Every structure is written in structure tokens, then in C-alpha cells.
Amino acid sequence: MDERVLKLFSSLSPASDVIKEHDNIHIFSHHDADGISAAIILSRTLMRAGKRFTLTLFSTLNDDNVRIIKECGAGCIIIADMGASYIGALDEIDADVIVLDHHKGDTAAKNVYYANPHSFGIDGQDGGCGASVAMLFSVSVDQNNWDLVQIAFAGIVGDKQHLKGLSGVNEYLFSEGKRRGHITTAEGSLIPDGPLISSLYVSAEPYIRGVSGSADGVSSLLKDAGIDAGRSSADLSDAERRKLSSLIAVKLLEQNVMKEVIDEISGTRYLLKDWNIDALTFASLLNSCGRSGNGGIGIGLGLGDKRCMNDALTKDAGSREMIVSALRDIDSKGLGQKNNFQYFENTTSGFTGILCESIMRFIADPNRPTVGYSVSDGVTKASARCTHPILRKGVDLSEAMRLAGESAGGGGGGHKIASGAWFPAGNENIFLDALDKIIGKQINAR
Description:
Largest sheet: 6 strands, mixed
Number of strands: 14
Number of helices: 19
Oligomer: single chain
């Protein structure tokens, strides 16, 4: 085991001992695939330990939600996939508080049991996510919980920490998961899984211009490949698979998608033994549930409820159509331009981060950061994405989004390459102007 991972793992022992002293625990977690995966792992861990618990999912952690945590009344509180930016406030809670996060935070914990890869020299951007840390915590509680590593990989893949190859905590979890027979791998493909006539229509990873969201475009692509419209990806011959993959690759290159993105899509898939699906599919199901406001269905799915699986499949199909429709609309209209980034408004509530990721990879100028925002219930939430070459120019989206969010009356944070912010609705121009200046200073400072 990597010495840094060992130290992180060892640091969890006091926290795992603490939960044994409590019979009523409250879990708070994020509502994306990583956060829900972490919540499922923690829920199953507590259930196996015979503990009663309550679970709450948040779309973000802000002052109001910190107040909810403070007033929950539980003697033990576990916060997953968030919390790093609020350690000072969480330190004040009169309860045993455990924070399992992978985002950067500047405050050292005094009373909180705090585990974060960053604290041990592991980059939480790609070397360990919320579900990864929750998984280490779970096996710290009981070594018999190693089967839950399959759920952790939904979080790892959901946060796209596998794209550059596994490292840090994730590499250790895969090694153990494979050794214990819980995870195997397979070669990926540009061809989406399932019946081609429908899977190509709702394809957002990759988003194929002229094909995704277009029935005529799908039919034309399959005709060019010599494949009947009634076929499924699973029953293609090797020759048919090569032909269709080549045609998709050509289309992606024509829309200026970077070759490394194409290679990432067709990279390794992680197959989950007990679920009979791969981690990418699992992550998509959880994301669709959480971001559509149906996180409970995702939790039920992770706890093995077959009805929730059926409901999640329905939600996922609807979410995919919604996402592709939004991508086509933004692709048609184009993005707004600031001096140092490009941006769009998302009128499809709940999927701004996913849209921002796909737009960055398949539509926008890959040499400029991409920012998306949506307005709901008097609050504007923004997501930002960039690429590794942009990072090398000096851009740090975590810092930029935090500062710009604060300038607009809110806050923000995350990772250098992917971050978010929130602020009162109506302050969008203040936020965008501030973000433009901050990113410009970052680039000029380099």
C-alpha cells in the first residue's frame, strides 16, 4: 500500500471507533454520483453494524445547510463528499462530527474527525473522491465490508477520476477489489451500450454533433456503418464494431474534440460483479436520481431495492434525453464569451455540472475554461470546468470560483480543474465579471 494511503487509512481508526459509541447517527452527503455512492457505503456500513441512522442529501453545502447540520440533534454526524470549506463551523458543533471529503480546505480541524486525501499528499482531484474515503472508513469499521468497493467505483467514475489512470486511494481500492474478486476490467468503446437506435440518440459521452438527439442523424450513421437500426451494441461483430467506432471517431475529430478525450472515452471500463453493470452505468443512474431531486431512489438502488433499480433506469433515460436536448440547444446557440472563459446559462435545472463537463469536452473551445450557471428558487448555482493544459497556464478554478462567488454574495470551491459557486439570483453579471478578472490575473501571474 502507498505510504500516503496507509497514513490516511490509519487516521480513520479514531473515527471508526467513535461510531461504535453511538446508536443514532446522521449522515449528510452530496447529491451527485460520488456523494450518493459515499452515502450508500456509509448506510450499508451502519446497517451491518446494527446502528440506527438518518440520511440527508444536499445539492451543496452552504451556511443554511450547515445550520441544518448543527440543529439535527444527532450525537454523531458523518459528512461525506463535502465539508472541507466549513471545518471551522463544524468544529463548533456539540457532537462527534466525522468529515470524509476530498475537496481542498484551508482550515485545520480541532474537534472534527477529518479525513481528506489532500492532508496526506494525495490530490483529491484525481487520487481519491468522497466515495473513496468513505470506503476506507467502511473497512476501517469492519474488514468484511470490502464488497462495497464496487459502489465506491461508481463514485470514482462519476467524478471522472479514472480518466488519467487510477492513482492514490483509487489505485489501492482497485487493487484490493480486483484481488478479492469484486471488480474486473474490460476495454471501453465509443459506441454507447444498449439498442443503438436509442443509445446513440441519447449519447452525451460522447456527444456526437448531428447524431446525438437526432433520429435522422442516428439512422444515417448506422446506414453508413452498414448496421441495421434494430441492432444492439452487444451483438455487433468485431468488424461492425470497428466500422461504427471509426465513423464516430471521425465525427468527433471533425467537431474538434481532442484526441485525448476520444481515447479517454474508449478507455478501461470497471465491471461490478454483484451488480452485473459497469461503474459508468452505475454512476449515471445515481447522477440522474440525485440531480433530478430523487436521491432517495439512488440510495434505495444502492441498498438493493429492485423497484428502485427500475425507477432509476426510467429516471436515467429521461435525464439523458434532457441533457442531450440541452447540449443540442447550447451547441446551436453558441456560448457567451468573456476575455478569459466561455459560458452558458442552463435552463435545465439540476444538470449544470454534467452539461459543463460535456460542453467542455465536445462543444466548446478546449483552450478556454467553460462556465455554466442556472437559477432556481432565488439562488444561482454555477459550475466550471477546464483541461490540464489550461491548468498549466496557471488557472485554479477552485480559487477563482470561490472568490467570484464571494464577490457576488455567495461562495464556492472545489478542485482546480472542476469547481462550483453559488450566490443570490440577479448577481450573475457581478459573478461573471469578477471571475473574468480573477482568471485573467491567474494567467498573467504565470
